[in-house]
Amino acid sequence: MPEQPVAVAVSTVIFGLQAVEGGPTLHLPLVQRVREPHFGRWALPGGPLRADESLREAARRTLADTTGLRPSHLEQLYTFGAVDRGAVQDRVVSIVYWALVRTEVAATTRKDEHVAWFPAEAHPPLAFDHDEIVGWAVKRLKAKLEYTHLSHALLPDEFTLGQLREVHEAVLGRRLDPANFRRRVEATGTVAPTGAHQAGVRHRPPALYRSTAREELLT
Amino acid sequence: MPEQPVAVAVSTVIFGLQAVEGGPTLHLPLVQRVREPHFGRWALPGGPLRADESLREAARRTLADTTGLRPSHLEQLYTFGAVDRGAVQDRVVSIVYWALVRTEVAATTRKDEHVAWFPAEAHPPLAFDHDEIVGWAVKRLKAKLEYTHLSHALLPDEFTLGQLREVHEAVLGRRLDPANFRRRVEATGTVAPTGAHQAGVRHRPPALYRSTAREELLT
User: Cα–Cα distance between B165 and B163 in angstroms, integer?
Assistant: First the structure.
């Protein structure tokens, strides 16, 4: 059995909300490839694992290098290692993380002509098997977001229940009934009122809430 | 940045039931190391990823090579890649799978003086970070087993509700109320009566059930 090298890469699917007509929508930053294979195609931020860094450190580094962002949530998704993943010479195993960034952070991404945000469910065809990987990440996000603290990682520290509902609507891709949503969120105990109200709203300004997560969401 | 090689290994945590005094108990096969590092220590079955096989194929191969077993369930657990995982020279990233084998299969493991089954929660200290990995796998198994089709992967094709309860008791490590268990399992619709009864029991032989899983559990 000839010993062929297996290369190890770490990639990250980064989710953030971007304001578009109709409300915030789930987006992700992609990087345009500047060399073969798949020259010109968009791909997930990532790169080879360095011998002196952990998998998580590699995810944070490539995320920062390509987008300038720090995640508010970072978690291992899955390791993809099919033999024919599309690389030219080496066999590449990709350990994929998924990350959430806060709305205000997502709006200030590093300017780079080869980095752009696309709607999570309406992006161009991606290089390698990255379409499949993004599909997995969206599915995981949907499964984990509902009525947990995780949705708070997409919002500022203080938020209204309307903003929180918009996060859920953006991820789930459908409208939610405001009264039902409020009832269900309050029942989970994942948010607590701060006592303050949203500034700049004159008539009945909505109450502000914060996450009750004991652990700091920043990872 | 010097390009040091990162080696890729695939390991598998294999769970099966073994009959001991007091009923079936969750066990796992381990392999005794016959070379340094950690010479003589017990470790998870596994080995280097070959360039021509997928991760899942590697998991099945190393599982078969070391224990002679075919799994009834096989799923990726997590990829472990801390810098100081205990190898001597190379940096090793381990993609870990977890597997279930049926009771009758677990009883017929290949004879090998360097392979032995140990209780999942009372095994000797393992090589490398394998204690941590087994802990993760037990946690995942507990979380996924309850009232899903997964528990059937530890049983023969037809089983009594008493045998199913013993599987859950073995995994959870505590006794369950038979009447409550029957009610909850029947409510999930994961099992259906075959119409037959257990052979060899003269007085009120218990009914046999089968899994309602549409997909074949064998992977």
Answer: 5
Helices (H) and strands (E) in chain A, counts: 5, 9
Chain A residue at shortest CA distance from B77: A78
Question: pLDDT per residue over A172-201, tens digit each?
Answer: 989 999 999 999 998 888 999 999 999 888
Note whether B161 and B182 are within 8 A (CB). Answer: yes
Type and span of the H or E element at A48: strand A46-48
For chain A, give the number of residues.
219
pTM over 0.90: no
Residue B20 C-alpha, separation from nearest chain A C-alpha, in angstroms: 36
* Paired tokens of A157: 């520290």
What distance in Å separates residue B144's CA from the closest CA in chain A? 15
Residue A183: its H or E element: helix A178-188
Give the β-pairing of A91-100 and A6-20. Answer: parallel
What tens digit of pLDDT does each residue of A128-172 get?
999 999 999 999 999 888 767 899 999 988 999 999 999 999 999
User: Touching check for A132 and chain B: CB below 8 Å?
Assistant: no
> Left (φ > 0), alpha (ψ -120 to 50) or beta: where does B86 sit?
left
CB B12 within 8 A of CB B63: yes
B85 token code pair: 């995982």
